[in-house]
Design brief:
Keywords: Coiled coil, Kinase, Membrane, Phosphoprotein, TPR repeat, Transferase, Transmembrane, Transmembrane helix, Two-component regulatory system. One of its GO terms (molecular function) is phosphorelay sensor kinase activity. TPR repeats lie at residues 149-182, 189-222, 229-262. By secondary structure, the protein is α+β, with helices and mostly antiparallel strands. Among the domains are: 19-35 and 62-139, Alpha Horseshoe (Serine Threonine Protein Phosphatase 5, Tetratricopeptide repeat), CATH 1.25.40; 449-501; 509-657, 2-Layer Sandwich (Heat Shock Protein 90). The protein has 22 helices and 7 strands. The strands form 2 sheets. Strands 2-4-5-7-6 form a 5-stranded mixed β-sheet. A hairpin with a 5-residue loop joins strand 6 (639-644) and strand 7 (650-657). Mean pLDDT is 78; it is low at 1-19 and 26-62.
């Protein structure tokens, strides 16, 4: 007998205690930061299928700064549990920055762990791996088996979800060994849970059930209610895979009750989706539809492409089972859109890996060719030596003449090879110059035509109304704007050509990045005012100096902030924020424009390429700004990073090494 549908539908209306707790923690952060209260912050332990207790290894803090960071750890963890990933990521990064300023390695490990798990929830697996690898490097300096076990478990989860199964299993086994060494039963249960999921995916159901049962017993003995729900879920999945429908529904219902008690929207949505699948396979399509609607309603507010993709896939299967093929097709289309969003970052990572492999193969090929040439030359020398020795016994003069001929021939061949190489190099330079000239003329004829026409028209108006002072003043302002625009175009053309030829000169000096960027933002405020946009600037005190070219760095700011103003609609906001990370000073330009499409990332820094977004105020866009900015930063030992999703604006971040640090 299947459980009643009304029971499953009613389960979606549990009271969510998280917002109240989150408000309490925010007040704690404020009080601790301003008044230095000494009371410690206490909260329910937090864990999931890949999480240990978020503050389990935290030392007893005595200073108000340490207590404030402790509260930030709890805040970010609670925000992640309730599905507010954007706010959680911002909180974790704020805490990481504070911990780095204080030199607190243990707190850096805590915030890096949270950052990686939040990025995992957002399906940004490459950045999650990067965060956890940095966490692992710092955790090793603390020599704490509990921290190392948690880090290896998180890496195992992320590699496993990223499709690198062997790497994931290796980290899981290392995490289990460290957790047992530390005597941490909560960690042991967590890793057993992860290993059980691994064997479930490998369809070794007996091994999976054994591991999940072990994890459940440990968690029940420790009273970890939240973690017990994960074991219920996984045992339900094993039961469903083995055809035990009643057992699957029972375990998933028990898990759903706990997730609703804690207000964990991501897990509630996934559990409703799993209940939909179980009921669909059991033939209860009405009950399945009710759970699907609950899942869709919750997932819409999460912003997780992975959760949505799984729900859309199940929706297509349910509509197909009901005979509603139009609805199934609609879900398939939504699934394709969500999958494309997830694949964007994976594709960029794969392209980088393929490019690195290609470069390695090219170097290996060049080495093999060089060795082959050397072998040929060696063989020729040996053959010539043998012939010379054979003839030398009776014909000394002939040997001399023959040797002279060989030498002359080799000199001639060597000269011919050098001539051919020089000719080929000259031809390539000429072809590159011809292509550059063609591109220059095409863009110049298009983008210089408009201001030149405007200047011609303005001159005509001045000729017809020379006595009207107000008209002359207004037209003169137009001439200045047009000539400034043409000057910018010409400067970009010349910079692009110099970069491609390798002739761009840099004049590096010690600079105050905060002062330079503040001046740049102030200079662009009039442009923002014309489009009724808000342009803000924020920088912490005491930022270290950087070594850079002042004029070129000002050009970088003008390009990045100018792009943000250009592509952000009227009434939008652009924020310029400075900070310090490790041995780098960074500047972020955040906008509220249309964001970047996945296809844009492949040509983001290519010269003369235009992206999907269009200027919102009819401004010109040649496709050179980001190319020049990327190259200017590289020449100064810096780098340029981009974060963006369609419809959610963009963040352009550049980093420069501090004066005392060597470029990475």
């Amino acid at each position: 007998m299947l459980p009643a549908v009304s029971r499953h539908v009613r389960a979606g209306r549990a009271i969510n205690p998280i917002p109240g707790a989150l408000r309490w923690l925010r007040r704690a952060v404020l009080v601790l930061g301003l008044l230095g209260a000494g009371a410690a912050v206490h909260a329910q332990p937090i864990s999931d299928s890949g999480d240990a207790v978020a503050d389990e290894a935290l030392p007893e803090a005595t200073s108000k700064a340490a207590e404030s960071m402790r509260a930030l750890v709890h805040t970010a963890a609670l925000q992640r549990r309730r599905g507010d990933y954007v706010a959680a990521l911002a909180t974790a990064r704020e805490g990481l920055a504070r911990a780095q300023q204080l030199g607190d390695v243990r707190m850096q490990v805590e915030f890096l762990y949270l950052t990686g798990r939040i990025q995992w929830s957002l399906t940004d697996y490459p950045r999650a791996i990067e965060s956890h690898l940095l966490e692992l490097r710092l955790a090793k300096t603390l020599n704490d088996p509990k921290l190392l076990a948690r880090t290896h478990a998180a890496l195992g989860l992320t590699y496993h979800r990223f499709g690198q199964i062997a790497a994931g299993l290796e980290h899981f086994n290392e995490a289990l060994k460290l957790a047992q060494e530390a005597g941490d039963q909560a960690q042991v249960a967590m890793v057993l849970n992860n290993l059980g999921n691994h064997y479930l995916e490998q369809k070794d159901y007996a091994r999976a059930k054994e591991l999940h049962t072990q994890a459940l017993r440990i968690r029940e003995s420790l009273g970890l209610t939240r973690a017990i729900a994960d074991s219920y879920t996984n045992l339900g999945l094993v039961a469903d895979a083995t055809g035990d429908t009643a057992g699957a529904l029972q375990q998933l219902d028990r898990a759903l009750e706990v997730y609703q008690r804690f207000g964990m929207k991501r897990y509630i949505a996934n559990t409703h989706r799993r209940l939909t699948a179980v009921l669909r396979r059991a033939g209860d399509l009405v009950g399945a539809q009710a759970h699907l609607e609950e899942a869709l309603g919750l997932a819409a507010s999460l912003g997780s492409a992975e959760v949505l993709a799984n729900i859309y896939e199940e929706g297509a299967l349910l509509d197909e089972a009901k005979g509603d093929f139009r609805g199934a097709l609609g879900f398939q289309r939504k699934l394709a859109e969500a999958t494309e969003t997830m694949r964007g970052e994976r594709d960029r990572q794969r392209i980088a890996e393929l490019r690195a492999q290609f470069d390695a193969d090219q170097r290996e090929l060049e080495i093999r060719l060089l060795r082959r040439d050397q072998d040929v030359q060696t063989a020729e020398l040996r053959r010539g030596r043998s012939q010379t020795l054979a003839l030398g016994a009776g014909l000394i003069l002939g040997v001399v003449i023959f040797g002279a001929v060989i030498v002359v021939q080799r000199v001639r061949l060597h000269a011919e090879r050098r001539m051919r190489a020089a000719t080929q190099q000259a031809r390539e330079h000429a072809e590159n110059a011809e292509r550059l000239k063609t591109r220059f003329l095409q863009i110049a004829s298009h983008d210089l035509k408009t201001p030149l026409n405007a200047l011609t028209a303005t001159a005509g108006l001045l000729g017809r109304a020379p006595a009207n002072e107000e008209t002359v003043r207004r037209l003169a302002q137009g001439i200045q704007a047009d000539t400034a625009r043409m000057a910018t175009l010409v400067r970009d053309f010349l910079d692009a050509a110099a970069i491609e030829d390798g002739n761009l000169e840099m004049h590096l000096d010690e600079l105050d990045l905060a002062a330079l960027s503040r001046e740049a933002v102030a200079g662009l405020q009039p442009i923002a005012a014309l489009k009724r946009q808000t342009l803000t600037f924020a920088a912490p005190k005491g930022l270290p100096k950087v070594r850079a070219d002042a004029d070129r760095l000002r050009q970088v700011f003008d390009n990045l902030v100018g792009n943000a103003l250009k592509f952000t609609p009227p009434e939008g906001a652009i924020d310029v924020v400075l900070g310090e990370l490790d041995n780098y000073v960074f500047a972020e330009v955040r906008d509220t424009g249309p964001g970047l499409q996945p296809a844009d990332f492949g040509r983001l820094f290519a010269p003369y390429s235009r992206l999907s977004a269009r200027p919102t105020g009819k401004e010109a866009s040649m496709g050179l700004g980001l190319f020049i900015t990327h190259e200017l930063l590289a020449l100064q030992g810096g780098r340029l990073e981009v974060e963006s999703q369609p419809g959610q604006g963009a963040v352009f971040r550049f980093l420069l090494p501090v004066q005392s640090a060597a470029p990475a």
